[in-house]
Amino acid sequence: MTASLPALWDAGVLEALVAQSASLLTLDNFWLSALLKILLCTVMLMVVSLVGGYLEHKAMGHMQNRTGPMEAGPHGVLQLVADGIKFIQKEDIVPRAADPLVFAVAPGVALVPALLGFLVIPLGPGIWAEDLELGLFYALAIGSVGVLGILMGGWASANKFSLIGGIRAAAQLIAYELPLILAAAAVAIQAGSLSLVDIVESQATMNIFGTPVSMWFVFPQLLGFAIFVTAALAELSRPPFDMPIADSELVFGYMTEYTGIKFAMFLLTEYGGMVFMSALISVLYLGGWQPLPGIGLPGCEAAAGISDCGALGTVLGVGIMMAKIMALIFVMVWLRVAYPRLREDQLQKISWLVLIPLSLANIVVVAIGKVAL
Amino acid sequence: MSDLDTAEQVLPGTAPGEDVVFELRGDADFDTAEMSLSIGPAHPATHGVLRVVLDMDGERIRAARPVIGYMHRGFEKLAEYRDYRQIMALTNRHDWLSGFCNELGVALAVEKMMEMEVPGRAQWIRMLLAEWNRVLNHLMFVGSFALELGAITPMFYAFREREDIQYLLESATGGRLHFTYNQPGGVKIDLPKGFLRESVGLVESTRARLPDYVDLVLGNEIFQARTKGIGALPPEVALAYGVTGPSLQAAGVPEDSRVTEPYLKYGEIDVRVPTGDNGDSFDRFAVLLGRIEASLDIIDQIHDHIGPGPVNTKLPKMVRAPEGATYVRTENPLGQLGYFLQSDGSKNPWRFKMRTPSFSNVQSLPYLLRGQLMPDAVAILGSVFFVVGDVDR
Fold first, then answer.
1. Distance of alpha carbon A92 from alpha carbon A341, whole angstroms
2. How far is CA A352 from each of CA A177, A179, A221, B86, B262, rounded to the nearest angstrom?
3. What is the mean pLDDT of residues B233-261?
C-alpha cells in the first residue's frame, strides 16, 4: 500500500474537492440533507425530463400541422405518464442470441450518469446538491460515461442495426467530446473557476478595466456558445446529429431490440440528457438563474453575492432556470423539426475540421481577453 | 456549411464515395470482415416490403441485391378471370399511389382494341384527374424522401396538401385511393357541380405552398450535402435498365410519353418536362418538385379546354375486345406504364401483361448502391421512386 492512497482519504483533500458555497439543502441532519439532494436530482431526471418530453410532443405537433397528444389529461399533459405505465406493462423481451447480463445492465449504465450529472447543476440561488470545486470537470466527465451503456446495449443486442448504432454513438462521442470540453474550457478560463456556482456568480460580476459589469458569457463567447450547443446536440444524438438512432436506416439504432421498461430507461436517458445539457448551457453561457444581464433577483442585493436571495428570490431563480432549460429544449425540438440528418462522415468532418480548430481559436481569444482586460 | 458540399467534383457515373475524407476501405492495414445486412422486408427505409440484401464492409456497401416478390398478388393472372370493367378495380391497386393513371391505361388499351370513340369531355376529365393523381403521388414521395433523410416535417405538410386533393377527387369518384372512375369509352359519371371551381382554387393553393418545399427541403444545406452527387445515374445506364419517369428525367433525358407519344388530348396542350443535369438524388428530388409544378400548369390548361358534352358512350352488356393484341403506354407518375393486352374475343383478356415503372426503377438499385455508404443507401432508396406493390404486382 503506497502512501498516496491514505492521502486521498485525508479530510483536507475532500474538503478541497467539495467546495466553498454551501447549498441550502445542506442541513445539520446529514440523512435529511442527503435525502433532499437525492430528491433534487431525481426530480430533475424524472419530472423535468417528462415536462421536456411533453414540450417536445406538443411543440413538434403544432409545428407539423397537428395537435400532439390530446387525450391523456387536459391537452395530453399526462401522455408521458401513460407511456411510462404502458412501458412497465410491456413484456421484457431478450433476444435469444443476446448477452443477457450486458443487455440488462446497459440501460442502467446509460441512465445512472444522467442522474448523477444533476448533482452539480445549480438550479437557483442556493439550490444545488453539491458545489464541487471541479464541478464543470465532473459534469462533462459523468456525461460521457453514458455512452458506455449505449455501446453495451448495441453490442449485447446481437443485432446488426444495434451494433452499427452503438458504434456510431461511440464514434460520435469521441469526435464531439473534444469541442465540448474545449468550449467549456474557455468558460472556465474566463470565470477563473471550475465550480459551476462560481461560473454563474462570475457572470454577474465581471471586471472590465476595473469596472464591474454583469455580462453573460454568451456575449463575449458567442462562438464558444455555438460550438458548445452543436457539440451538445451531437453528444445527445439529437437531430440533426441523430445517426446512432437514425430510424430510417438503423430501425432504432442501439434501442432496436429493447422493449418495455429497459426501452423506457433509454428514452428517459435521452430526455434527461436534454435537460442536463440545457441546464449546463444555461449555467455556462446564459447566466444561470439570473433573469437578465445586470438585473438581479429580488432579495439578492441585501445579501452577500447572488447565491443567497431569500425565499422569493430563490423561487424566482429556480423558475428562471427552468424557463431557460425549457427554452433550450424547445430549440432542440425546433432543430429536429426543421432539419434532415447529417451523414456520419460529414459529422466527423464538422467536428475535426471545423469545430475543434474554432474552439482552439476561441480559447486563444478568451485567454488573451482575460489577461488584457 | 458550404465545405460539406462536395458535389462539384463528382461527375455522374463516377464511383461514388470518393469525396469523403474518412474512407472506410476494406483493404486497409487491419482486417475487416464483410457483413451481410438484410434491409427489409420489414424495415422503415423501404416503405413497403422491398428487401435489399447488402454486403457491407463497415458502413460501406460492397454489393446490393434487391429481393422482390414479398407482395406478389398475381394481378396479371387475376386479370385473366375478370371482365374489362372489373380489371379497373384490379389495376388501381398495383401502384396504389397512382390508381387513376393505372386504370386509365386499361381503358385506353380496351378502347384501342375496340376502336371506340371517346367523347371529348371524358378525355379532358380523364386528363384532369390523371394530373391531380400525379400531384398526389409526387407529394407523397416529396414527404417520404425527406423522411428517409431524417426530416420528419415535410411528410406532414405533404399530407396536408394530399388531403385537400383527395377530398377533391373523392367528390368526383367516391374513392380516395382506388378511384375506379374509368370505364371503357369514358368515365362513370360526370363531374359533380362546382368541381372545376374547387379545382381552380386548389391549383392556386397548392402552387402557393410549393415554395415551402423548395425553401425548406431543396434549399436546406444538410439536404444538399446528403443528396448532391449521391447515387448519380448516367442516362445511358438509366436507359439500359429501363428506368423511366422522374429518375430518367433527372438524368437529363426528357422522355415523357405525354410528349413523345401523346395520348388523350395531351397533344393539344403544352406539357413541360423538367429535367436534371447529374441524375443524382438531388436532381431526382428537384425533378419531382418540377413535375408537380408542371402538372399544375397542365391542370390550368385543362380548365381552359374542358367543355360540355357526354362523358361516356353506351356500352354493350358485356364488353368484349376483338381478337388481337395491343400495347398501350402511358406516363404514370413514377414512369412509363405499359399494358400489353391480348384478347381471344371473349369477355376476359387472354393475357394481360403489365410493364410497371417501379419494377424497372428498382432494377437500377444494385448499380446505384455499389460502393455507397449505408446512410447514402437510404438517400438513394428514397429517391429512386418506387411503390413495392407496383414492383411485385
1. 31
2. 11, 9, 20, 62, 55
3. 88
B residues 115-174 near A, CB within 8 Å? 146-153, 156-157, 160
Taking Cα atoms as reference points, which of A225, A118, A243 lies closest to residue A179? A225
Mean pLDDT of B30-35: 66
Radius of gyration for chain A, computed over Cα atoms and rounded to the nearest angstrom: 21
Across B258-320, the runs of DSSP E, i.e. the strands, are none
Q: What is the pTM of this model?
A: 0.82
pLDDT of residue B295: 92
Among the partner residues B43, B153, B225, nearest to A64 by beta-carbon distance:
B153
pLDDT tens for each residue of A120-170? 888 888 778 777 788 888 888 888 888 888 888 888 888 888 888 888 888
CB contact (8 A) between residue B376 and residue A246:
no
In sequence order, which ranges of B12-119 are alpha helices (DSSP H)?
Answer: 75-79, 84-91, 99-114
- From residue A6, alpha-carbon distances to A2, A3, A17, A133 in Å are 8, 6, 16, 21
| A165 closest CA partner among A110, A96, A101, A209 | A110
How far is residue A350's CA from residue B3's CA, in Å, rounded to a whole number?
Answer: 9
Model pLDDT, residue B84: 86
Burial tier of B112 (Cβ tally within 10 Å: 0-12, 13-18, 19+) = middle
Instruction: Kindly report, residue by residue over A297-341, the tens digit of the pLDDT.
Output: 776 664 445 666 777 778 888 888 899 999 999 999 998 888 888
Enter the C-alpha cell of residue B125. Answer: 376529365
Rg (CA), chain B: 22
What residues of chain A have any CB closer than 8 angstroms to a CB in chain B? 60, 63-66, 160-161, 164, 239-240, 242-243, 246-249, 251, 336-346, 348-350, 353-354
The residue of chain B with its CA nearest to that of A336 is B151
Give the integer Cα–Cα distance in Å for B29 and B27: 7
Domains of chain B: 75-392 (1.10.645.10)
Q: How far is B91 from chain A (nearest CA, A)?
A: 30
The chain-wide mean pLDDT, for chain B, equals 83
Paired strand residues for A206: A213
A349/B4 touch (CB, cutoff 8 Å), yes or no: yes
First to last CA, chain A: 48
**B45 at interface of A, judged by CB pairs closer than 8 A:** yes
Contact B150 A344 (CB under 8 A): no
